[in-house]
Each structure stands twice: as C-alpha cells, then as structure tokens.
Amino acid sequence: xxxxxxFDLDDTLYPELEYVKSGFRxxxxxxxxxxxxxxxxxxxxxxxxxxxPRDRVFNRVLRRLGQEDDRQVIAELVGQYRxxxxxxxxxxxxxxxxxxxxxxxxxxxxxDGYMPGQRLKVEALGLEGFFDRIIYTEELGxxxxxxxxxxxxxxxxxxxxxxxECVYVADNPAKDFAGPNGLxxxxxxxxxxxxxxxxxxxDLAEGYAAKIVVEDLGELEGVLA
Length: 225
Ligand SMILES: [Mg+2]
Hints:
The protein has 10 helices and 6 strands, in the order βαααααβαβααβαββα. The protein has 2 domains: 4-15 and 89-224, 3-Layer(aba) Sandwich (Rossmann fold); 17-83, DNA polymerase, domain 1 (Orthogonal Bundle), CATH 1.10.150. The radius of gyration is 19 Å and the shape is elongated. By secondary structure, it is an alpha/beta fold. Strands 3-2-1-4-5-6 form a 6-stranded parallel sheet. The protein has helices spanning 16-32, 38-51, 57-64, 71-83, 92-102, 117-125, 137-140, 150-159, 178-183, 220-224, and strands at 4-7, 106-111, 133-136, 166-170, 186-190, 212-214. Residues 8, 10-12, 170-172 line the site of magnesium ion. Magnesium ion is lined by residues 8, 10-12, 170-172.
C-alpha cells in the first residue's frame, strides 16, 4: 500500500520551458545593455535555444550581438540565470491535486539541478508548504544526483515509510526511475509533450523505465488507487 508520494520538480510539477523563458528574460536586459532592446535579445535567445543545440546558447547569441563570449562572461551569465528569481505560476490543477493528496499521503520532493536555482523555483511556485520533506540532490553532492539512490533512501527514512510504500513520480526515464526502481519503490512516468527531455523509452538500460506511464498528472490518483 502506498503511503508516500515523492515528486520530481522540473517537467513534472511545472513545465521547465517556462523556467528557461524566465531565465532568458532575466539575461536579456543585461545583454542588451542601456542602448539595446531587451525584447529583441530575448527573441534571439529563444530562437537560439529552439534551433539547438540547447547548450552554448549564450555563446551563440553573444557572437551574434558582436560581443565577446569568453569564459568569464559566460560564467557570469550562467550565474545570473541560476540566481534569478523566476517568474513561474503553479497550474491550478496541480495545486488542487497536491491539496487533495496532502490529506491522504506523506508528500516529498526530490530534485536534481543547480542551486540556488532549484530552491528559487520551489519558492516561486509556492510549493514548500505541500511537502513533508524536500531533498535537493545538489546539497548532498554531485555524486548524489539521480540516478543515485541516496536521496531516495534518505527520503523514506525522513518520512518514516518502507520502500514498498513509496512512489516516485517524474518525467525523465534517462535518470529518474533507476534509483527508486532498484530500491523497490513504485515509479510513475508523466509524459509531457512540451518537456525539455523527450521522455522516450527506447534504448533504455534495464531498470530505467518507470513501472507505470501516464499521459498527464491528472491520471495519478487513478493509478495509485
Ligand atoms: Mg524532471
């Protein structure tokens, strides 16, 4: 019987593309400078991201703007991106789901990703109050990012539940489910058409696929019942 539901953050509880857009808005003003047009630079950043590859977007846009793209400039921009206070809004359906689940299960959040970016996302979405425990794997150390199992072990311990009583709900089979599967948790993949990771399950190593796949978070209560 499931007693605890643990969620992933990006592309599970909100669309990560909204964070990318918010970060580009934060950077655009700086790149445009006092003379330039921040909206135009934002459009350049978004176009560079969409056309791909999705790394080195800042380098490409800086060169297109005729600016230096040396390491220090890039490091500053990446720092500004990760430290910006994102403009994000929790979807009403997700909020209502969490409110319902909170009364019936222990709830947790396990998120990979750079700090303080992950914490700032949680704050912007107003998520802290829903969870009995939040674990940012980056705070445990880079070796503990998913698919490592440590965060999942710590979570079950903190919530006082057995592995067989836990479910992890996430979007990315490349890293999200191997850890909890190995510990005997239930796992649910939420597919997102607009996800930053495509969520494909071909060519996955054994144990990496979620045990249950749903098309939408709204189906979660049905599969747990
Ligand atoms: Mg995710």
